[in-house]
Write a structure and sequence with these properties.
Elements (H helix, E strand, L loop, with lengths): L8 E5 L2 H4 L22 H5 L22 H15 L3 E5 L2 H4 L10 H16 L3 E7 L5 H7 L6 H16 L6 E5 L9 H5 L9 H26 L4 E8 L2 E3 L4 H23 L4 H9 L10 H7 L4 E6 L3 E3 L8 E2 L6 E2 L5 E2 L5 E2 L1 H15 L3 E5 L17 H19 L5 E7 L19 E3 L11 E3 L1 H11 L4
Parallel strand pairs: 1-2, 1-14, 2-3, 3-4, 4-5, 5-7, 6-8, 7-13, 13-14
Antiparallel strand pairs: 9-10, 11-12, 15-16
Helix pairs in contact: 3-5, 7-9, 9-12, 13-14
């Protein structure tokens, strides 16, 4: 037996800003991600270092069309159903429901779109798993308030949550408050719409934004449970264990501290309070948070139901700044691990690291886990037979799924489900590219936006269909 529960949620995952397109259709407003370009200026904008108004006139914004799922969702969902998806993780574009974020009433056209989308999933018995905020803040909220640096975003977010919890009550059970919430620390504008001013104390701004998001997440969790006690609300972490570069105690401590930097958000969302190490960090760095009178109680009383996370790679840490070579890894740069191979983008491939990470999270929180992103970004070539022979992707996913099953079967980890990232090709969040493909379904589009958007099944499509049909056996 595979050890996985009979109702295990196999599926795939995407984000509105990377696949939906239709960026102004149906009354949608601009989101922060809609002003992040492809190309040489992308990273600086995502970091909040270069203002989007300073971009050249010919800048290309891949989110504007993406793969146009907005107009093709029925075809795409039918393909997911053909693979046998038990669930599909996707996100709402906040600015499709509240175009500026300032409105008192939501945009009915946006709500109707998501209702039709969800109904299409339910038609095939696919469980919707909704990310409420996936790197997507109405641009007006950034312009008016500075996005999550302001506590005014808490009320705007809760207003948005109340609308969607009520509208989709009984249709959506699984929610996630923020995607990869810790990404705020690495790419502040992409993660939370934070744009820095010259000479500003960036740590102060980031931790204030983090606090505001944590309070908003707790209030959303409270609201979801009040509206329907059956609702399950999760947090979401960009995960991946840090290994010490050597057995030097200094390297071991450095790895532990880097893990803590990642866990900080989830510690609060899962345990309901700031951990001691975080309080000491704020104190050492003279970070004074604006904290509401009820914030501590709100955090304490409204912890999440499950821990969702992305896993692409493990990481390596050393106290010695001159040791080893560096490589990429889901935005967070790391030292090269000599024992691992890497993807074409330098992300190190470590299936066993998934099991290590699962155990670390489950030991720490004792709450059900949900792997909501895992996959291999690769350059795929569409052959003359109109498919992609992506054996490399099959090998990657198979190795990770085997370790996932061991964590459940041998280690006793409680796991709700597994959704591969980018189950259909989409725009890469980190690079803005289309050529960095993750999907089981090839989409005809290139980095510059050329292509007819036609969908083609890859070899991995039938492979994953078989995995799901046999519940991982």
């Amino acid at each position: 037996m595979s050890g996985l529960r009979k109702d295990f949620l196999w599926g795939g995952a995407t984000a509105a800003n990377q696949c939906e397109g239709g960026y102004l259709d149906g009354g949608k407003g601009l989101g922060t991600v809609d002003v992040i370009p492809w190309g040489e200026h992308r990273r600086a904008v995502m970091q909040g270092k270069l203002h989007y108004n300073a971009l050249p006139e010919d800048a290309y914004f891949p989110s504007h069309e993406a793969i146009d799922m907005y107009h093709n969702y029925k075809e795409d969902i039918a393909l997911f159903a053909e693979m046998g998806f038990k669930c599909y993780r996707f996100s709402f574009a906040w600015s499709r429901i509240f175009p500026t974020g300032l409105e008192n009433e939501p945009n009915e056209e946006g709500l109707a779109f998501y209702e039709a989308f969800i109904d299409e999933l339910l038609k095939y018995n696919i469980e919707p798993v909704v990310t409420i905020c996936h790197f997507d803040v109405p641009l007006t909220l950034e312009q008016e308030y500075g996005s999550w640096r302001s506590r005014k975003l808490i009320d705007a977010y809760v207003k948005y949550c109340e609308v969607i919890f009520k509208r989709f009550n009984g249709k959506v059970k699984y929610w996630m408050t923020f995607n990869e919430i810790n990404m705020l620390m690495h790419l502040p504008f992409m993660g939370a719409g934070i744009m820095f001013k010259e000479g500003e104390n960036e740590l102060q701004v980031k931790y204030q934004a983090a606090h505001n998001e944590l309070v908003a997440s707790a209030l959303a969790t409270k609201l979801a449970h009040e509206i329907n006690p059956e609702n399950k609300v999760g947090c979401m972490l960009a995960a991946g264990q840090f290994y010490p570069y050597s057995c030097k105690p200094e390297d071991v401590l450095e790895a532990m501290e880097k893990d803590r930097n990642n866990y900080f958000f989830i510690d609060v969302q899962s345990r309901g309070a700031y951990p001691a190490y975080a309080k000491k960090f704020l104190e050492r760095n003279n970070i004074q948070l604006e904290v509401g009178a009820d914030d501590e109680r709100i955090l304490r009383e409204n912890t999440v139901d499950y821990i969702a996370f992305s896993y692409y790679t493990s990481r390596l840490a050393s106290k010695d700044p001159n040791v080893g070579e560096r490589t990429a890894g889901n935005v967070i740069a790391t030292l090269k691990n000599p024992h691992l191979q890497a993807s074409e983008w330098g992300w190190q491939i470590d299936p066993l690291g998934l099991r290590v990470t699962m155990n670390a999270l489950y030991d720490r929180y004792q709450k059900p886990l949900f792997i909501v992103e895992n996959g291999l970004g690769a350059v795929d070539v569409l052959g003359e037979n109109e498919t992609v022979e992506d054996d490399y992707r099959i090998a990657y996913l198979e190795a990770h799924i085997k370790e996932m099953i061991k964590a459940v079967e041998l280690d006793g980890v409680d796991l709700l489900g597994y959704t591969t990232w980018g189950c259909i090709d989409l725009v890469s969040a980190s690079t803005g590219e289309m050529k960095k493909r993750y999907g089981f379904i090839y989409v005809d589009k290139d980095n510059a936006g050329n292509g007819n958007l036609k969908r083609y099944k890859k070899k991995s499509f039938d492979w994953y269909k078989n995995v799901i049909a046999n519940n991982g056996l």
